[in-house]
Structures are given as C-alpha cells and as structure tokens.
Specification:
The complex is a heterodimer of chains A (1028) and B (656).
Chain A (H helix, E strand, L loop, with lengths): L1 H15 L9 E3 L10 E6 L4 E2 L18 E3 L13 E5 L3 E14 L5 E7 L4 E5 L4 E10 L8 E7 L8 E12 L1 H9 L1 H15 L3 H14 L7 H17 L3 H4 L2 H23 L2 H4 L3 E5 L28 E7 L4 E8 L3 E7 L5 E7 L7 E6 L6 E2 L8 E6 L5 E5 L15 E5 L7 E2 L6 E7 L5 E6 L10 E6 L7 E4 L8 E7 L5 E7 L7 E7 L10 E5 L22 E6 L4 E7 L6 E7 L4 E5 L5 E6 L19 E6 L18 E6 L11 E2 L3 E2 L12 E7 L6 E6 L4 E6 L5 E4 L11 E4 L40 H4 L1 H7 L9 H5 L12 H8 L25 H7 L9 H12 L24 H11 L29 H6 L1 H20 L12 H25 L9 E2 L2 E2 L3
Parallel strand pairs in A: 36-44
Antiparallel strand pairs in A: 1-11, 2-5, 3-4, 4-11, 5-10, 6-9, 6-11, 7-8, 7-10, 12-13, 12-35, 13-14, 15-16, 16-17, 17-18, 19-20, 20-21, 21-22, 23-24, 24-25, 25-26, 27-28, 28-29, 29-30, 31-32, 32-33, 33-34, 36-41, 37-40, 37-42, 38-39, 42-43, 45-46
Helix pairs in contact in A: 3-7, 4-5, 4-7, 5-7, 15-17
Chain B lengths: L23 H4 L22 E7 L4 E6 L4 E6 L4 E7 L4 E6 L5 E6 L5 E6 L4 E7 L4 E6 L5 E6 L4 E6 L4 E7 L4 E6 L5 E6 L10 E2 L6 E2 L20 E6 L4 E7 L4 E9 L5 E9 L14 E9 L4 E7 L10 E6 L5 E6 L4 E6 H13 L23 E5 L5 E7 L2 E6 L4 E8 L2 E2 L3 E4 L8 H9 L12 H4 L9 E2 L10 E2 L21 H13 L5 H12 L16 H12 L2 H4 L10 E2 L13 E2 L21 H7 L14 H12 L2
Antiparallel strand pairs in B: 1-2, 2-3, 3-4, 5-6, 6-7, 7-8, 9-10, 10-11, 11-12, 13-14, 14-17, 15-16, 17-18, 19-20, 20-21, 21-22, 23-24, 24-25, 25-26, 27-28, 28-29, 29-30, 29-31, 32-33, 34-35
Classes of the chains: A alpha+beta (1028), B alpha+beta (656).
C-alpha cells in the first residue's frame, strides 16, 4: 500500500519535473567496463557491465550512454538470460541539488526496478523499464532529500520474460560519502539480513489478520473459538515490531533478530488463525498438480491438441489430488506421469469429480469421472482428434464442457478453438450449445443454474480485448453478455465464478498473449458492465490501477499471478497463485481483508483448488429449444432504446440487416498483417468474411420480429431509408432451433429492466415473423470482386485506372495483385472507406463509421463528374462498406505456401522479383507497411513495379515481366479465392472434411435425442453411427 | 360533491348509491344487517398463519394476527414468551392500536366484516363493530376519534366513530383497497388499491369545481383498436375532513399487486409496495425483470404526487412479492418484507432521497440518467439497501420499533426478528409461535404457490400473476398460443374443475397447466411432488361470497336477472353450477392473429372479482361484455335486452 502511494507521488513528480540541467558532479556510467564503487549485495549476475551495442535478436540500438552500461541480462558468452536475480547498490552520496537523471531499460515487473534509497535502506523512489530494450531517460526531483545520504539500488528479482534491468548514465549533483559507503558495504551481511527482514515485512499486515480473525469469530461463533487468543498474540507481535523497527537504522542485529522472530511468529499465527476458518477446515480440498502450460499466442492456447500447430508444447506430468487442510496430508485420486489432468469440478453431493484428462502427448483430452474416494473411475467421452475440457455438472446431472468438436480456428492465428457442448451424465448425446466463432471456455454453474463462461469472439473489432464473460442457459438458449466485452484492459476476463448470495463474481483479469492467469478481481455488475467502476478489488491490490489503461496485454506484468479462483464465501477464496519460485503455483487462501496464505505446494505446481464437499444444487432450468427445425425467432421491442443511439431521430431506422460471421475452418502458414495476423489474408484490417442473411423491416415504433436461422453466429445493423447503416452490433448472437428470444433495444443498458408497459404491443409482433431472404439474390458469402468491383468497372475505371491521372489519385481498376486487387488496396490504403476494420473495444456512436462517414460515398453522393450510380450500384457500395468492407468470401486458399496465403507467386519467385525490381514484397504483406499495388496479374505490363525497369534495364524487365506473367498463368490454372472456380488446397480440404465429419456426428447425436435414444462417442466411427 | 359516471354503479354493490364519495348523512343508512358466511378456510391443519403484526410498549409487546387460527397472539419480547392468546370468532386480517395504547383493533369476517375491540389490559374482546365486506387494514385518527377500515371486496372505507363505536359512513373507494396510512395531521388517508381499478375515471367533476380528475385508468387493453391503454394500480387519497376523494395517484403502467403502504414519521412521503408487470413483452425470459419487477413507489404528501418508483430487485436476483412496509421510528430506514423470497429489505431512506434528488437535478445515479429511467434501474438501490434473509417462510406483516424489525412469517407459524444497528442488520431470529404442524398437501401447495424460490432468479411466484390464487388484471403474452396476442390472466378458482384451461383451452387440464407454468413462466423444472401439492392447494380454493349478495342471497334484481340469463342464452354455455359447459367457442372476441379463434368458456363464479373481461381484457365492465362487445349477438342474445333487463342480468352474473 505504501509503495503504491509512493509510486503515484513519483509519477506526479516525474510529470511535473523540469529538465533543468543540474551540475553533474556525480556520474555513474560504468565506462571503466566494471562496476567501480558499486556492489552486488545480493544474488549474482553474468556480465553485469555490458558493452553490447544492439538488442538481442533485433537489429536496434540500446541507446546507452557511452560504451558500457549496467545490465542484469547478459551472460558471459553474450547470450541473454532473464534468470539472473540479485541486488546491486551504488555508493552512498549526498545530493546538493534535487534533480537527478538516468537511463533505464528492461522489464516493468513489480520486482525489476531501480530505487532511490535513504541510507537506512528504505526505498523512496522507483523507476522501471517499459518491457523495452530501448533505454529511456528518467528524471527525478527530490528536494526533500537534498543534503541527506542516499544511494541507488537496482533490483532484479524476476526470472520471467523481461525479467531484467538495464541502467546507465546516472547524473546528479553532490558528493559521495565515502565513510557512509564504507560503513554500508563493510557490513554487507547485515545489509542482506536487513533486506531479508524488510522483505518479510512486506507481507506483514497485522490489520488484515486482525480483521479476518474478528470476522471469523463473528461469523462462526460456535466453530471459530480461539479468535481472542489469536488477537492477543497478534498484539504482542505488533508491539515488538513497532518498538524494534529502529533496528534497520541502528544496525542492531539483536533488535533486528527480534523483529525477524516476531514476523516469523506472525506468519505462523496467520497461518494457524486463517486455516482455522471453518470454510477451509470443514472439507478436503481437491486440486490438480501440473506444470503451467507453456506460453503460446493466447490464453486459450492451452490444449496443444494432437495434429495441431502447437502439439509439441504439451507437457506431461499431472495428478488429481485431495488436500486435508486440518493436517496438511494429501491423497492422490488419479495420476498421469506422461499426461495431464485439468479442470475438475465437484458434483452437488460432493461424491464425484468430473475432469478432463490426457494420457500422453499422443492422446487427446477426454472427460472422465472419479468418485471422491478414488473409486469409480470412468471415461465419458472418447472422440479422437478433438479435445474435451472444462467440464461442469448441471443440476439435472448432465454435463456441459468445452470442446473442439466443431473444428475451427481463431481468425487472427492458427489455433484450434472450442465451444460449449452438453451431454448426458453417462456421456451420451453430446451436442453443441455454444456457437460463437472462437473460444468458449472455463464454464461454471451460476447459483441460478445458468452457465457462466468466457467467450473470445470479435466482429469488426480488435482481437486482443474481445474476451469477456457471458452466460447461457444449459440448453444453449439465451446467450447474454455478463461483463467486460467493451473493456480495453484487461484483455482477458476469464475463469469466473459467481460469489453465491451476491451480485458479484470473482475472475481472472489476464492478458491476451499470456497463459490463463493474471490478477484476480471481484466485479459487481450492478456498478457497470465495463471498466474500472464495477471492480471492487483485485489481487494484487495495485492491479486495479491497470483496469482500463493500456491494451489487452497490460496485465502481463502483474506479479504474483493468480489462477482458478474459487469462492468459499463472499470474503474467503481459494486460488492458485505464484509461490515466488519462478512460475510455480501453490494453493492459497486469500480474503478481502488482504491476507494471502499458502495452503499447499508440491510438484510442478498446484491448480484448481475447490472444496470436495456438497453444495447447493440450483433449480433446473427447463429446455426451451428443439432439436429439429432450422429456425428460431428473434424480436427487438424498440431499436431506439439504447445507450449508443445519439442523434438517431425516431422513425429514422427503416430496416434491420442480419449478417452472419461464419467460423474459420482452415488456415495456412503465411500471414497478412491486419489488425492482427490473418492466415491467409482476408481483409485489409480485420478478420472476417460475411454472409448477408437478409434485411427485415423496422416498424414505426422501432419493433422488429423475424425468423433467424438457428446456430448461425449473426449480428445486426440498423439501416436508414437509403439502406445506409446507422448503427451496428460488433459482437454476435445465436438462436437455437425453436428458441424465441429478443432484445429490448440496440445496445440497451443491461443494468435496467425493460420500460414499464408501453401503451401498445410492438407492431412487429402483430404479424408473422419476417423472413430473411438474402440480399440481391440468395444468401451467399460476400465477395468483393463479385459484388462491388463491377460497380467500379461500370462507372469509374474509365478514368480511375493505371496510367490515367485520376488513377494516380485513386485507382479503381479490377486488376488482381499479390494479396488483394487494385481498387480494394487503394480504397482502404487511402482511407476512402471509414469502415472500422478491427476497431476499438468501445461501443461506437451511430453514424460514426461506415457509409455515413465514408469519403467514397460522400464523393459519389455529391455527383462526382456527372457520374450517377443507379440505386443498385449505390446499394452495393454502401452495403459493402457497412459490413466493414471485406474482400475474400472464404478462408480457404489455393496458395498456402505463398505470401499472405494469397500470392500465386512462390516465395522464390517473389524473392527474385524483389531482386529485380527493388521492391521488398514480403514487407508489403501488412496493412501498415503496404505501399500500394505493385503487380497486376490481369495486365502484367501495367504492374507499377516494372515502371523503372522498363526504361533502365530491359533484361531485368523481361525477366520480371515473365515472373508476373507466370503468376497470371498460375492464377488461371488454379483460381484464387477471389476468382470463380477456386478450389481449396489439399490441407484445407482435409480440414473441411474433418469439419463436415464432425457436423455429421453432431446431427447423429441430435437425431438420437429426438428419437429418445442414446448415442455415445464409442458408437461412432468415421462420422457414422455404428449399427449393431 | 363529485359525481362519477354511471358506469360505476354496477361495480359498487353494498353501497347502494352510485356515487364515489358520499355525504355523511346518506352513509348512515348503510348499517344494514349482514349475513354471516364462514371464511373459505376452516384451518384443517391447525396452523397459525401469522399475517399481521403490531408492536406496543416500545416493542416490549407484539400482537400477531394468527389468521387461520382465528386468534391474536400477544408476545412478550423481553421474556421471549407468548404472554396470552386472544380467540376471535373470525380469521383476523388486520390489526391496529389505539393511539392511547389501551385498545387493540382486529378486523375480520367476510361479508359480515367486523372490527373487534380488544381491551389490552384484560386481553378480552369488549365489543365489535360491523363494517364492510372483508375488512382488512385499519388506521386510527389522531386523538382516537375515528377508526378507518378498508373493506376489500366492497371497495369501501368504513369511517367508525369511536365515541359511538359505530360506523358513521362507508365511502366508496376503488378496487380492492388493501393498505392505508394516515398523515400525522390526520387530514389524509392514502389508500393502496390492490389491483388496477378498471374504471374509466375521466369525468369526475366536483360540485364546487375544485377537483378535476382526468386520469384514464383502465385494466383493459383493446387489442383491435390500438387505442391507448394503460393498466396501473392507483393510490387514492381520501380527505378525512370532507370525506371525499382528494387525489388519485397513478403508479407506473403495469403496477399491480399493491400490498403495503406506509407514511414516513415526518409525514413527508408515503411508500407503497407493488409489482410492475412488463406485460407488453412476450414472456421469453425472466432476466432483468423482463416479465415483472418488484417495486416501491414514493409519494410526496405535500403535493400528493408520485415522486418516483424504485425497483427492489437486484440485477440477477429478484425480490419477489413485496408485502408489508414500515419506516424505522427515526425515519432513517424503510423496511419491506418480501413474501416470495423470505427477506426484509432495509433501505437507507435519506440516501434514497438524496439519490432521487440527484437524478432530479440531472445527475446520473446507477443506471439512471433521468427521473423517468429510475423505474427501470435495477441498480438504483445498490449500496443503500440491505437484503436480510429470514429463517421463516412467507414474511407478510411488518412492525418496526425501537431499532427492531418484526415480521409475521405466515407459512412457518413464526415471527422473524432482527435489530438494525446504525443501518447494519443484526443476527436474524425466527421464533416459533406454536408447535410445528405437519404440512397438509394443500398447505404445502399454498407455500409453493407463494415461493419465488421455485422461480429462476426469484423474480416472481405463482402469486405474482395470481394473487390469492386469482388474477392480476393484466394481459400476458405467453408463448403457448403464438406471439403478439396477450391474454388476460385467469383466476385459478375452479380451474381444476373446469378443464380445459387457459383462455385458448390449450392445456387439457389444470394439472398440465400447473406444470407448464413452472416450465414456461418460472423457467424451472419442479418435482411432481411439488406440482401435486399445488394441485391440491388450487383445488381447495373456495369462492368468496359475492358482495352483490344481500344477506347471503341473490337480490331481487339478481333473481330477475336469472331469467334473463336463461332467455338470452347465457345459460346454454354457462350452465349452473360451474357456469361453463367446458367447451370452446368463437364469440367474436378474438382480435389480430386470434380473429376467429375459439376460446374456452370461463366459469362465472367470482366474476365480480376478475375484471377486466374477455380474452384480451377489453371489457372493463360486464355491461361492456354484454352490450358493447357483443354487437352481433354472437355472445348471447343481449342486444335487444332493455336497460332494466341488462341491469338485472349484470346483477345476477355478478352475484355468482
């Protein structure tokens, strides 16, 4: 707490301090190549003073001062190692001017920092790196320390990524106090001892313990009886610590020893007093033992499924165990030396445990069950080549879990994704209940019987922070946002459980590019569905300051990391937490008073703690869906009711458009860099292909009622009388077959009830539901080349073409190039569209993007050069822009091994073409590095990359032209996905085949449900039910 | 003198004049004899059923109305013992204490409603004063000069002169007056009417031109015409000086099931508990109060106007069936029982008004961005209200005194109590008032019927739309007959005896509908045992004698009407004794997608109680049913009946 306050004071000082040049009589720049009069007082490093010029891995300069700088990263052999830890201190000096400055680089962890210390070792001011090698200039102004003895301490206690500090060029005005320096360094043993005690004091929080003991005494008067005794001991300890705290400055070993002893007694007392909590003591605690998952691209990438991109990252060695808190004994229920056990959940009677297990790297995760006494082990799911994880019991005995049974991949990378599935208690009739396009995980049961899960899904928005908490009914109806879908930081709101009897939930605030851990947070959605206000507290407490700041990875630096929170009450929680030893996790008991006590650690690490005890069985929510039919129905009471409808006049909305965002079923190894990476390229900036399902009328009172195809991930847009988008949803929803569901409005405030009864029924509901009949023809995937380019061909290309002045300003030619075509590249790159791409997390105001904000449409509407578009052409343009200006209709590719997965030219051909033309083609495969179309495969001679060669080097020109022409030939033989006749590559076909096979199995299971039969994984081979 | 339109005459029976507010002298003729009719329940299980509770002697003594036991229990909180039990000849429905503390008043009886005067010292009934049909809530004037008694089923208030110990007059009120409180100066009585009135009150004019009320308060929703409709419970302000209506205060549209009303100790505000049905929405979900919310309305007494309505539910957790309400003596907290969830809400009253003022100033509070959004804000009370879970079942009446909250726990024969110390509720106790009795199936069913714990997120119980097993006077768009065609809630009386059920007859019998109700309205699957208990309870419902009866018998007009009933063909489809032939007909009352759709013939028993009428509640009065919505004589031959015949026919039907 004190540190937090000081840090904020420093920030203030840093921002207001001027750059006044001080007299630099003091300078630490390590130009001797050694530490000089500095000392390593703890730990050990490799080459602590480095002469390294450029970063490791990347060819960039450190920005050091002179030839040498201090670094805790370097090994003697010049390789980097974040594993070094220790403390380095400067000589003691006395500043005669408040200003000091220095360079700092490296990590921004809590335990990688530079501190200005008072001579007694108290840390006064801090600076940290910014997870960057580039050293940045820091200025301190400390008028209160002028004339006082101070020194610099460099601390690197982190072994994580960016677990190092670099430091150089410290300048200040003042004098070194040789005597004080000698006194400090001559007693290094004492210093180390003092630091150790100080560190112990960091977790010395008698107030928190006092509060917890008082609370437990009051809450459990019968069971928690020694409260007063604990408080007496606590006040003794406090008296000792308070009276002996001078030991640090007096250098009194004996006094310090009594402080140390008191703090140890405190730790013992705390452990005893908190473990006496009946909520902890009453029941055994179930937990798993495993290594933390290896890092990958996203917190959902922990499955390492067989045959997928990251299979080899699987680490074996796991167990399902029980801890008896009363005596600390443990018992093993299941052990897998080469496999892993994860995601256990206890049934309502406390008698059984369901979990996910993989026997070894060649196996896949399946769902298993075991009795609490270790008997009754049984396997429930068996499907090969898919992973079943995160199971949970429903009140009727059935089981919901996450699975890759619908094999599809995240749109910004290559990783297998999972949805929610449900099965009967014995593993029969597995069917899909979640259908969002990326990942649905960490399902838990809410006290009211719904499934609370984290969902990663993005429509027309960035990938990084689009992971939030959602709920659905156990039958897959009524998927609804719970919390945090429009919060920029944390990037991952995951792994939540409702705190029973409250309106709060505890969850992990993690990062996009991290494991599924991070800070823990209690959120109260009554206070809001996003950002800082609804966050009641976090662990660690200071993490609350990051909420809403930075981006999806802002929580990467949080230490310690927490995982798997489990509420014992609204005050006490079990969780998995870093023990301080690398990435190792132990089981902790934490409370809202601030106490954190290690209950147990062993092996590679401990996860998933939860009481192995009976718990309340919620009411059963009956099913509202069918397993036949293809439609559900959806209504909106009043589209004008919403938080983001500023400036929309009543009556302005005439239509509601329904658009599907299909899942991505294939991937390749070469990416286009949009808002994230797209494997292969799909669009300039965002990730999705689109299918317009239809447009239905919005009645005068704002009501809509329509049929929706079941299990399509769809989103809605409001259109005006010209068919131009007013507002758009940037998330998706589904209906189940037979489900009737609806919204009050668009972006309605989810903290409010519907308005009191209107004076009339919604008009739309007095008629049969409107049907979705496609857009300008039947429902189909949207292809820019088919739907939009013909408009330009007809009306624009005669001027806006290669070799025409208007074409220089904006080339609207149809010519296909390496990744997209010419006009698409031009319109996006030159910002004519105002499509939102992979837009920000915040909900946008109406008219703020899309055709109403588009330069292109403005030009068209202003009667540009007498060009008059017919109504259909106009509609095609605005519709395309409003669905976020996509390009490719499909994720499949004909060219998996070429640039962006789209180039007909091979890497070798492209490299040669690059040599000939001087154009760095690889670097152009990204929206922010692209310099415009360089190649036309339709008119090779018109390719801009040839323009100079033609004049200067005919041989090269001819060779280059031949390469481009060969590209044209390749395209003709093997049409790209933006051409008629496109055939997916072989690997895509295999993945599509697996998708179809899994879909067949899904249908077989539904058939079984409808027929009142039972179908198990083991009944199915090769996508067909085995008939016996 | 205010003269209402003639449409009211048919709805007010025991008061034989067709004006809403009557002069004192005329009222004196009303002391007519009443026939004793036994209450519906004869307490087969021997239960106590604490319904109301009052505190005396600064909280030392509690009086508890043991409804089904026909007794008053005197409980001593200092010794924690039952001091005495006072037997009554009727099931007590209301309790009040005289201001001097000497007398306890208990109301009871049905068509023979009476107030029992109980001498507190001797704990004996010293007298009784006849009042109206089913008297309940009573309020005492300052100085103990007058006792005002709400007569629920003849929609009137009895003004009892306490010096003479007799009813001075009975003034008509609106539908089912159920709760009231009196301003500290004694000038006004604010009366909560249980159900939306069903009266079209657009033509009251005062004799002196002082009062003009243009409210349009209708239960009916005329689906065919799309004309404006509204259906809201009202709070009626009764002026004790002039014995007349001073104001009608409409609650938000959809407000129904009014149960409790209290005036703050400083006399500035009245608080009313009720439900708001979101009946314009299909019942596709319960989350976020989609179907109904539980609310408290706040009335400014100085201006006699609605300040606002706040929701008592939390975002994911309904606070179903608010009932009793009272402020702490210092006015700092408002305490409300939630009979559906077995809780007491303790609301910081000053903080509440600060928030209301802030919103009125234009500030944002919770999710409220303007005063009109408060009544949809499920987070408005976040942080200023504590929900206290009781140990007993069925909390109804509440008494708050000396920092303690006491509740009558109807279904567990107990009282709940806890202290409020600086806003922090202390430990909750439940004190059993008698030996625990085994539950009969009927009693178990009655408990389930009122238990929102059987509902997803506790938003509502069966009793939300079917208060007392009857109907909430609203239309609901249930999904069993399509969407966009809301139907008026039916009373459950006789539903098991008159299959099929639902207006469309879509359920073959009531048993099916009971189970479907949980599945499709409460969104839970319940055990067959629970469903069977509910069947038993609903089968045990008995009709309340009609207030149209005279001395327990049909009036002369009704007797004449019986013949008209035959002549007009009514009896063909509504034959006695069930008054239904259990068949479905299209009598031309379907609208929209329901045009031409046959509807199940409803029983006419207790129809005096269940307006509005017809499938979509379009008819506010029986006259509308017979004349205005039967233009082509499809629904009986009524068009040629003369005014007297129609009057007699109505009298007959309403007597059932």
């Amino acid at each position: 707490m004190i540190r937090t306050i000081i840090t904020s004071v420093i920030l203030l000082i840093l921002t207001v301090s001027s750059c006044a040049a001080a007299d630099t009589s003091l300078r630490f720049s390590f130009e001797s190549g050694g530490l000089g009069d500095w000392k390593i007082v703890e730990g050990g490093f490799g080459e602590i003073v480095s002469g390294r010029e450029r970063y490791h891995g990347i060819d960039e300069a450190y920005g050091r001062d002179g030839a040498y700088f201090l670094s805790t990263l370097e090994r003697g052999d010049g390789s980097p190692n974040d594993g070094f830890t220790g403390v380095i201190e400067s000589p003691v000096f006395v500043p005669d001017d408040p200003d000091m400055s220095f360079l700092i680089g490296g990590g921004k962890h809590r335990d990688t920092y530079i501190a200005l210390c008072a001579v007694d070792g108290r840390e006064v001011l801090y600076a940290r790196g910014s997870n960057s090698e580039r050293m940045r200039h820091v200025e301190w102004s400390v008028p209160e320390l002028v004339g006082k003895r101070v020194f610099i301490r460099i601390v690197d206690e982190s072994t994580a990524g960016w677990g190092h500090v670099t430091f150089d060029g410290f300048t200040a005005s003042g004098e070194i106090d040789e005597a004080a320096t000698h006194a400090r360094f001559s007693d290094l043993d004492f210093l180390r001892y003092a630091r150790r005690v100080r560190r112990m004091l960091e977790s010395y929080d008698p107030e928190a313990l006092h509060a917890a003991v008082t609370d437990l005494s009051k809450t459990f008067p019968g069971e928690y009886r020694r409260g007063n005794e604990y408080l007496d001991i606590l006040s003794d300890i406090e008296a000792i610590v308070d009276t002996r705290s001078g030991a640090f400055t007096n250098r009194d070993r004996i006094e310090l020893a009594s402080v140390e002893d008191a703090v140890k007694r405190f730790e013992t007392l705390r452990r005893e007093a908190l473990l006496a909590n009946p909520l902890v003591r009453r029941n055994p605690i179930l937990f798993t033992v495993r290594d933390q998952y290896l890092p990958d691209h996203h917190n959902t990438a922990t499955i390492f499924q067989t045959g997928e991109v990251n299979t080899l990252s699987f680490r074996g060695g796991g167990a399902l165990k029980v801890l008896y808190p009363a005596d600390g004994m443990t018992e093993t229920l299941v052990e897998m030396p080469n496999g892993n056990i994860r995601d256990p959940e206890v049934d309502f009677d406390g008698g059984r445990v369901v979990f996910s297990m993989r026997r070894d790297i060649a196996d896949d995760y399946h769902i298993y069950e075991v009795s609490a006494d270790g008997d009754g082990f049984r396997q429930l799911t068996y499907a090969a080549g898919v992973s079943d994880i995160d199971p949970l019991y429903l009140p009727d005995g059935s089981i919901v879990f996450s699975s890759t049974r619908e094999p599809k991949f995240c749109m910004c990378n290559k990783h297998i994704m999972a949805n929610l599935f449900r099965m009967e208690a014995d593993g029969a009739n597995i069917h899909q209940i979640g259908k969002s396009t990326l990942f649905e995980g960490h399902g838990t049961l809410t006290p009211d019987g719904r499934v609370l899960y984290d969902r990663w899904e993005y429509v027309d928005r960035n990938f990084g922070d689009a992971q939030a908490l959602w709920t659905c009914n156990p039958d897959g109806t009524n998927h609804a946002l719970y919390w945090g879908n429009n919060t920029n930081s944390p990037g991952g709101v995951i792994d939540a459980r409702i705190i029973s009897g409250t309106e709060r939930a505890i969850c992990v605030f993690g990062s996009c590019h991290d494991r599924p851990w991070g800070a823990l947070a209690i959120i109260d959605r009554r206070l809001g569905l996003d950002l800082r206000d609804p966050v009641i507290r976090t662990w660690p407490p200071e993490a609350i300051g990051i909420v809403g700041h930075g981006n999806w990875d802002a929580f990467l630096g949080v230490r310690p990391k927490y995982e798997d929170p489990y509420p014992l009450s609204d005050t006490y929680f079990l969780c998995s937490r870093m023990t301080g030893e690398g990435e190792r996790m132990g089981i902790y008991l934490i409370d809202t008073f601030g106490n954190e006590v290690l209950l147990h650690e062993e092996g590679a690490g401990c996860y998933d703690p939860m009481p192995l005890s009976p718990r309340l069985r919620p009411n059963v929510i009956p099913s509202r869906r069918k397993f036949t039919g293809e439609n559900g129905r959806f209504y909106v009471v009043d589209v004008y009711q919403g938080t983001h409808m500023r400036g929309v006049e009543p009556g302005a909305v005439k239509y509601l458009r329904v658009i599907e965002s299909p899942e991505k079923r294939t991937w390749n190894y070469y990416a286009w860099s949009g808002q994230g990476t797209l494997w292969p390229a799909m669009n300039w900036h965002d990730f999705l292909n689109k299918r317009i399902l239809g447009t239905v009328p919005v009645e005068d009172d704002g009501s809509v009622y329509c049929e929706l195809p079941a299990e399509k991930f769809v989103y809605f847009q409001l259109l005006d009388e010209n068919g131009m988008m007013i507002q758009s949803m940037r998330s998706g929803t589904i209906v189940q077959p037979g489900e009737v569901t609806g919204c009050i409005g668009c972006h309605e405030n989810r903290r409010t009830a519907p308005l009191p009864a209107y004076t009339t029924m919604p008009i739309a509901m007095e008629k049969p539901p409107a049907k979705l009949t496609g857009w300008r023809g039947e429902q189909r995937l949207f292809s820019y080349m088919k739907e939009v380019q013909p408009v330009f061909d007809r009306s624009c290309v005669r001027c806006h073409d290669f070799g025409k002045p208007a074409g220089d300003r904006l080339n609207l030619a149809p010519d296909r190039s390496l990744t997209f075509n010419t006009s698409y590249n031009e319109l996006w790159r030159k910002s004519f569209l105002s499509a939102i791409g992979g837009g920000p997390s915040e909900i946008q105001q109406p008219f703020s993007w899309g055709s109403h904000a588009s330069r292109l449409i403005e030009v068209v509407q202003s009667g540009h050069k007498g060009v008059e578009l017919d109504a259909e052409s106009f509609d095609r343009l605005v519709t395309w822009i409003d669905i976020n200006a996509p390009y490719y209709p499909v994720y499949t590719t004909a060219y998996p091994d070429n640039l962006a997965g789209r180039s007909p030219l091979s890497p070798a051909q492209l490299a040669r073409l690059g040599e000939l033309t001087g154009v760095p083609f690889e670097k152009l495969a990204g929206h922010n590095t692209n310099r415009g179309v360089q190649i036309s495969f339709d008119r090779p001679e018109a390719s801009p990359c040839l323009a100079e060669l033609k004049e200067n080097n005919e041989a090269a020109y001819t060779e280059a032209l031949d390469i481009i022409r060969s590209g044209s030939d390749i395209l003709a033989r093997n049409p790209r996905a933006d051409m008629d006749g496109h055939v997916p590559c072989l690997i895509d076909q295999l993945r599509l085949g697996k998708y179809d096979q899994r879909r067949q199995i899904e249908l077989l299971n539904r058939h079984a449900i409808n027929s009142g039969e039972k179908l198990y994984d083991t009944d199915i081979t090769n996508g067909e039910a085995r008939r016996e | 003198m205010i003269r209402p339109s003639t449409k009211h005459s048919a709805t007010i029976n025991t008061i034989s004049i067709s004006i809403l507010l009557v002069p004192v002298l005329l009222a004196l003729v009303l002391g007519c004899a009443r026939t004793v009719v036994k209450h519906e329940s004869d307490n087969a299980g021997g239960y106590l059923s604490p319904l109301e509770i009052v505190a005396a002697d600064g909280g030392k003594t509690l009086y508890i109305a043991a409804h089904t036991a026909s007794s008053i229990i005197e409980y001593d909180t200092s010794t924690k013992r039952i001091a005495r039990t006072i037997s009554l000849p009727e099931h007590p429905t209301g309790l009040a204490l005289s201001r001097d503390g000497g007398t306890l008043f208990a109301s009871g009886g049905v068509s023979d409603g009476r107030v029992f005067l109980i001498d507190r010292k001797s704990a004996t009934v010293t007298g009784e004063i006849p009042v109206g049909h089913t008297p309940g809530t009573m309020v005492v004037s300052p100085g103990d000069t007058m006792l005002y008694v709400l007569n629920r089923f003849d929609n009137s208030i009895s003004v009892v002169d306490m010096r003479k110990k007799e009813e001075l007059l009975a003034a008509p009120l609106l539908r089912e007056p159920i709760a009231a409180d009196i301003t500290p100066d004694g000038r006004y009585i604010l009366v909560a009417n249980h159900l939306p009135s069903g009266e079209r009150l657009y033509d009251y004019v005062t004799d002196g031109g002082i009062l003009m009320i243009g409210s349009y308060i209708s239960t009916g929703y005329f689906q065919g015409s799309r004309e404006a409709y509204a259906s809201a419970g009202v709070v009626l302000v009764y002026d004790t000086r002039y014995h007349r209506l001073a104001e009608l205060i409409s609650l938000p549209n959809g407000a129904t099931d009014l149960r409790g009303l209290t005036i703050s100790p400083d006399g500035r505000y009245a608080y009313v508990t009720h439900i708001i049905g979101r009946y314009h929405l299909p019942t596709t979900q319960l989350e976020r109060g989609w179907v109904s919310v539980n609310a408290m309305s706040i009335i400014d007494i100085k201006h006699l106007e609605l300040v606002n309505t706040v929701l008592l539910d939390d975002l994911d957790h309904g606070a179903a069936n608010p009932w009793g309400i009272q402020c702490t003596q210092d006015g700092a907290y408002i305490c409300i029982t939630h009979s559906g969830t077995g809780e007491v809400s303790v609301i910081d009253r000053y903080a509440l008004h600060e928030r209301l003022n802030a919103v009125a100033r234009g500030d944002t509070v919770g999710a409220s961005t303007s005063p009109s959004t408060v009544q949809t804000d499920l987070t408005f009370l976040t942080g200023i209200r504590k929900r206290v879970s009781l140990n007993g079942k069925g909390a109804r009446g509440i008494a708050v005194t000396d920092g303690h909250v006491y509740t009558a726990e109807y279904f567990s024969d107990s009282i709940g109590m806890f202290a409020i110390d600086d806003g922090v509720p202390g430990a909750v106790e439940s004190i059993q008032l008698g030996p625990e009795k085994p539950l009969t199936a009927e009693r178990a069913g009655e408990i389930y019927f009122h238990d929102a714990g059987l509902c997803f997120q506790q938003w509502l119980s069966c009793a939300t739309c079917h208060p007392d097993g009857r109907a909430d006077a609203l239309n609901w768009d249930l999904l069993n007959d399509g969407i966009g065609n809301p139907k008026n809630t039916k009373s459950l009386l006789y539903s098991h005896r008159t299959p099929p059920v639902m207006i469309t007859g879509i359920r073959d019998r009531a048993e099916t509908a009971v189970r479907a109700g949980f599945h499709f309205i409460q969104f839970t699957a319940v055990d067959e045992e629970i469903a069977c208990a509910l069947d038993a309870y609903l089968k045990s419902l008995e009709p309340v004698p009609s207030p149209y009866l005279e001395n327990g018998r049909e009036s002369a007009a009704a007797k004449r009407g019986r013949k008209v009933f035959e002549k007009a063909g009514c009896a063909d489809c509504h034959p006695s004794p069930l008054f239904t032939d259990l068949a479905s007909y299209d009598v031309g009352t379907g609208a929209g997608v329901d045009v031409g759709r046959p509807f199940d013939t409803p029983t006419l028993v207790e129809i005096w109680r269940t307006k509005p009428y017809l499938a979509d509640g379009r008819a506010d009065t029986m006259y509308d049913v017979l004349k205005n919505f039967n233009q082509y004589d499809i629904h009986g031959f009524t068009q040629k009946l003369d005014a007297e015949e129609i009057g007699d026919l109505i009298e007959y039907v309403m007597s059932q």
